[in-house]
């Protein structure tokens, strides 16, 4: 089955199940209030972490270094903020894990290691340039 289809059907089902379970424990009003509070606090913290990432990226640009991790981290923070805005407890949990710097670094390292396409397979070659020299230009008839 297609992964996108599983996500499109699975995430709402998980969220509805969690709404029902948590709502039966703490009440409907408290459940809605908890969803709103996690969205507001999470987006605020994502904004704070985004500014920190931007500041670190700018300092690396001043040092004439490429801020690769900061670019990936910024995209991850934007995705985490989106997950926090979407109502639900499972998406909030994933969003919070992506916002916290320690867990974000851990998750990104695992993801990059799994999807690294630059693994060295064969290093038995010599890198070099060549120039085609034609002997026809030197001979005159």
- Structural class, from helix and strand content? mainly alpha
Question: Termini, distance in Å?
Answer: 71 Å
What's the gyration radius in Å?
25 Å
Mean pLDDT rating: 85
Helix content: over 70%
The count of DSSP E runs of length 2 or more, i.e. the number of strands, is 0
Tell me the strand percentage band. Answer: under 5%
Describe the structure.
This protein has helices spanning 3-26, 28-62, 68-85, 89-99, 101-114. With 141 residues, it is mainly α. Helix content is 72%, strand content 0%. It contains five helices and no strands. The chain has one domain (10-114). The longest helix has 35 residues, at 28-62. It is elongated.
Q: Which tags fit this structure?
A:
141 residues, mainly alpha, 5 helices, 0% strand
Summed up, what is this model?
The chain is an all-alpha fold and 141 residues long. The chain is 72% helix and 0% strand.
SSE layout and pairings?
Blueprint: H1 3-26, H2 28-62, H3 68-85, H4 89-99, H5 101-114
Helix pairs in contact: 1-2, 2-3, 2-4, 3-4
């Amino acid at each position: 089955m297609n992964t996108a289809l599983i996500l499109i059907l699975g995430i709402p089902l998980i969220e509805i199940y969690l709404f029902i379970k948590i709502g039966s424990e703490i009440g409907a009003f408290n459940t809605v209030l908890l969803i709103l509070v996690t969205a507001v606090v999470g987006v605020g913290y994502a904004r704070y972490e985004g500014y920190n990432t931007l500041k670190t990226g700018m300092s690396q640009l001043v040092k004439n270094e490429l801020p690769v991790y900061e670019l990936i981290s910024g995209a991850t923070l934007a995705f985490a903020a989106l997950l926090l805005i979407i109502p639900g407890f499972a998406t909030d949990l994933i969003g919070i894990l992506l916002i916290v710097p320690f867990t974000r670094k851990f998750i990104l390292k695992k993801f990059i290691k799994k999807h690294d396409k630059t693994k060295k397979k064969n290093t038995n070659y010599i890198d070099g340039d060549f120039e085609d020299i034609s002997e026809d230009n030197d001979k005159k008839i």
